[in-house]
Amino acid sequence: MSSTTQVITCKAAICWEVGKPATVEEIQVDPPKATEVRVKMLCASLCHTDISSIQGFPHNKFPLALGHEGVGFVESVGDEVKNLKEGDLIIPTYVGECKKCENCVSVKTNLCLTYPVRFTGLMPDNTSRLSIRGQRLYHVLSCATWSEYVVVDVNYLLKVDPSINLAYASFISCGFATGYGAAWKEARVKSGSTVAVFGLGAVGLGAISGAKMMGASKIIGVDKNEMKREKGEVFGLTHFINPSGSDKSASELVKEVNGGIGVDYSFECTGVPSLLNVSIEATKLGTGKTIAIGSGVENIVPLDLIAIIFGRTLKGSVFGGLKTISDLSIVADKCQKEELPLHELLTHEVPLSEINKAFELLKQPNCVKVVIKM
Q1: How far apart are CA 277 and CA 146, in angstroms?
Q2: For residue 138, what are the contacts with CB-CB under 8 A and spacing of at least 6?
Q3: How far apart (Å, rounded) are the C-alpha atoms in residues 190 and 166?
Q4: Where exactly are the structural domains of the chain?
Q5: Where is the Alcohol dehydrogenase-like N-terminal domain (predicted)?
Q6: Chain segment 308-329, per-residue pLDDT in tens
Q7: Which CATH class, in words, describes the domain spanning 8-173+341-373?
Q8: Are 195 and 220 in contact (CB under 8 A)?
Q9: pLDDT of residue 297
Q10: What is the spatial distance between Cα 32 and Cα 150, in angstroms, rounded to a whole number?
Q11: Residue 231 and residue 242: Cα distance in Å, rounded?
Q12: Fewest Cβ atoms nearer than 10 Å: which of 13, 215, 254, 283?
């Protein structure tokens, strides 16, 4: 049986309808069912997906308990949970890994068929463990990390070393790890190759770091925020382009930096629809490969078919192609050993009670990641 059967009342950030600001209110969190754990969140963070969530992406179900990045410890476990115990430090993710299905045993994808990415706002049994004044709460993906307590299915959790920096662990629960994995697992960047990264937020900086780790010889960052140049260089950037001061397209500017030809790999990390075609056009004729990572409310994108017909490849990526246990554990180990300059991501901190301030901070040019203290 679960180690506790009590409903917990705690604070959480809630959005009641599309476009409304978040409010911090008391909610009720049920005990975990058989294959679930209840987590005491310790630290969370904010990224652009959280902005999209209050605008109705990836689903339009409200009231919504917000947040999808974070780290916490196991408060209680369901009676079928064998690999975790009370007190274990965990990272919640939104990609499961059963290690048995066709996709999990393949090296081609991280998208588990047994525990898929959930866009229902509910648990795998299509119910919720969260409620407010008797009304069911939805969550963004597999959980709601901007809540003092949350329940997560065990198949979406990674146990991590208790000495890991909590803020850094939060960053790899989605953003940074998504970019890092996109270069490592999705593109499989070859040593000596050339790379362009569009958008130098946490995801883009992760892609730069992953490309450097894979041995890319030239890594070009594209961003309208001049302040991102210095951040990018810390993670491995070799060239920076700010297209706002030019009448040329960003793809043309990338080619100029690369001797007049496209790069081997490009990563679209912004979710801005118009930049998808730009990132494709920035790659080499015949062999260029573009990884689409960014997404948002506007997801119908007119595709430049000519750019694809001329031999380029476009590949989508969820969580950077990282498998929750097999791959994210490797990133977490690097994080715990401080082999990645994740301290450069941390620019602001706010308490949960000031969650709307976090959204305002994210608009500032010097902001990369906002940590939310629970």
Answers
A1: 35
A2: 59, 61, 62, 63, 64, 65, 120, 121, 122, 128
A3: 32
A4: 8-173+341-373, 178-318
A5: 34-160
A6: 999 999 999 999 999 999 999 9
A7: alpha beta
A8: yes
A9: 66
A10: 9
A11: 14
A12: 215
CA distances from 232 to 79, 188, 208, 235, 345 (A): 46, 20, 7, 5, 10
Whether residue 365 is preceded by a cis peptide bond, meaning omega within 30 degrees of 0, is no
**pTM, to two decimals:** 0.96
What CATH architecture is 178-318?
3-Layer(aba) Sandwich (3.40)
Q: Maximum CA pair distance of the chain?
A: 65
Region at 203 (left for phi over 0; alpha for psi -120 to 50; beta for the rest): alpha
Give residues with Cβ within 8 angstroms of 23, minimum separation 6. Answer: 13, 14, 15, 16
What backbone torsions phi and psi does residue 311 show, to the nearest 5 degrees?
A: 85, 5
Residue with tokens 């976090």: 358
* Nearest Cα to Cα of residue 85 among 37, 43, 129, 123: 37
Name the token pair of 344: 């450069």
